[in-house]
Amino acid sequence: MKGKPKKVGITASGKKAKHGTVAADPKVFPFGTILDIPGYGTATVEDIGGAIKGRHIDIWFSSHKEAKKWGVKKLKIKVLSKPQNSKQQKKKMEKKNEHSKK
Fold it and tell me: How many domains does the chain have?
């Protein structure tokens, strides 16, 4: 057995799925990335999916009927913010410390 079984309604990031929850490829859109999706609104990447690769996303809906009504769409989404990884944060702090020493 590989780890614990997934709890229904809980995302891979450990949060409860709700309106505004998106699953994405974490190599493209890491957890915490905030997206503006035309016709849907603002959403946060909080989950992954085995079939979700590259620039595809999966938007959470409260029912299968609602998801089917939305359908499959090809949209231009806007990335509002991406979380900084630890390397970026470390470089930023080093740069800040460097400037404060001058």
Answer: 1
- What are 87's strand-pairing partners? none
pLDDT of residue 49: 81
Is residue 14 situated within a structural domain? no
pLDDT at residue 44, rounded to an integer? 96
Question: Distance between CA atoms of 27 and 31, rounded to whole angstroms?
Answer: 10
- The domain containing residue 97 runs over which residues? 21-101
Q: CA angle 34-40-42, nearest 5°?
A: 20
Strand order in the sheet with 41-47: 57-59, 21-24, 41-47, 34-37, 78-81
CA distance readout (Å), 12 to 7, 19, 21, 29, 39? 10, 16, 11, 14, 25
- Residue given tokens 């029912």 in the structure block: 63
Which residue positions in the chain have pLDDT lower than 50? 1, 86
pLDDT at 14: 87
Distance, CA of 21 to CA of 9 (rounded, Å)? 11
